Here is the input.
Amino acid sequence: MSLPHTRIALETRLKNSWGNTTPIRWENVRFDPPMDVNKNPRPYIACLIKNGRGSDITLGSDNPWTRWEGMVIVQIFVPEFIGTKLATQYAETIKNIYLALPRNIQYLNSGIIRLYAPYAVETGVVGGYYVVNVTTPFRRDSQLV
Here is the structure.
C-alpha cells in the first residue's frame, strides 16, 4: 500500500485529461495565480487529495486487506464578475474526468483505487475568484507488500 502511489494515480488522471485548459495548483508546490498582460486574474484549478480513515476488510488472514477512504477535491477559480458559466463548464469537465472509465485504477503499489460519482458545490466568491469545488470520493483496497 502506498499513499505516494495513490496520489500519483489520482493526480495523473487529472493532469493527462485536463491538459493545458488552465494552470493547475498542486498541493504544497509554489504557485502564483495566473494573470493576463493587464494584470487581470485568469482562471486556474487546484487539486487536493484528502485521505480518510482505514478499516480492515478481511479478518483472520495472514495477509489482510485494508480499505482506505478519501476524496479528490478539485477547486475551480474563475475571476469574479464574469458569471458562473465558465466555472460550471469546468466543473462538468472535471466531473467527467473522474467518471470516465476505468473507474478502478492502480499505480504501482497504490492498491486498487475505486472512484465514485463526483459532485460540484458552488462556494461563491473568495479572494476575487468565483470558486466551485468538485469532490470525487474514492476508496483504496490494499494489502501489505
